[in-house]
Amino acid sequence: MAYNDTKIISEKDIYQAKYWRVFQRTLERNGKVITKDMLSRISVVHVIAVTDTDEIYLVSQYRDALNEETFEVPAGHIDEGEEPLAAAKRELAEETGLTSTNWEHLITYNQGANFSGKVHVFIATGLSEGQTNFDEDEDIELVKFPVEEVLAKTQNGEISVASNIATLQLYNAMKRQKHG
Predict the structure, then answer these.
(1) Model confidence pLDDT, tens digit, residues 43-77
(2) How far is CA 77 from CA 1, 16, 91, 102, 104, in A?
(3) What residues form DSSP beta bridges with 105?
(4) Which parts of the chain have pLDDT scores under 70?
(5) SS (H, E, C) the chain
(6) Which of 155, 35, 178, 180 is nearest to 168 (CA)?
(7) Burial class of residue 167 in the structure, from the number of CB atoms within 10 Å of its CB (0-12 exposed, 13-18 middle, 19+ buried)
(8) For position 152, what pLDDT does the model report?
(9) pLDDT score at 59
(10) Sign of the dihedral defined by the CA atoms of residues 149, 119, 163, 16, in that order
(11) Which residue of 31, 154, 162, 166 has the lowest C-beta tally within 10 Å?
């Protein structure tokens, strides 16, 4: 069933934070008026930094909301007015100290079905090492694993953040399609 007849009647902010916005939207659909509470998150970038020897750089950091340390791809929010590629380059340098001479946009996908925000995924190759520039609340360790080991970590739970699993499995599918 298509909902292209949905009309937004009104929208009201409930709460605004640095990266999140909670709002109430009133819609008209199929002759009915519906009011929903919604969540919007700033769009983010994910960077799959791949070495010439087919290894992927990950960051290991403690995540307060999860109360655990995670393995993740270098990632971060897109500043207002910033292009996704510029954000990817900035985040890679800040979190890893790496720069790249080759950038490829892999995919852009929705962060979730019940809240808005995009994930822009880039592949970075031709890597060079440099200095990190962590945000105030970041304590990041840079690690590097062979691609196959990273993919295994998405299946055994060592990489547990859903968007990172999606990003890395999409990379794997793309790689297989190109080489297989």
Answers:
(1) 999 999 999 999 999 999 988 888 999 999 999 99
(2) 34, 16, 8, 21, 18
(3) 122
(4) 1-3, 132-138, 180
(5) CCCCCCEEEEEEEEEECCCEEEEEEEEEECCEEEEEEEEEECCEEEEEEECCCCEEEEEEEEECCCCEEEEECCEEECCCCCCHHHHHHHHHHHHHCCEEEEEEEEEEEECCCCEECEEEEEEEEEEECCCCCCCCCCCCEEEEEEHHHHHHHHHHCCCCCHHHHHHHHHHHHHHHHHHC
(6) 155
(7) buried
(8) 96
(9) 95
(10) positive
(11) 31
Give me 70's structure tokens. 């995670």
Neighbours of 156 (CB within 10 A): 8
Query: What is the amino acid identity at position 61?
Result: Q
Tokens at 67, concatenated: 């109360």
- N- to C-terminal Cα distance for the chain? 37
Going by C-alpha positions, the residue among 134, 8, 154, 151 that lies closest to residue 74 is 134
- Burial (CB < 10 A; 0-12, 13-18, 19+), residue 121, is buried
139: which 2 tokens? 């304590």
Q: For residue 25, what are the contacts with CB-CB under 8 A and spacing of at least 6?
A: 8, 10, 11, 35, 36, 38
Overall residue count recorded for the chain in this entry? 180
The tens digit of pLDDT for each residue in 124-139 reads: 999 998 776 656 666 7
A 10 A CB-CB count for 41 gives: 17
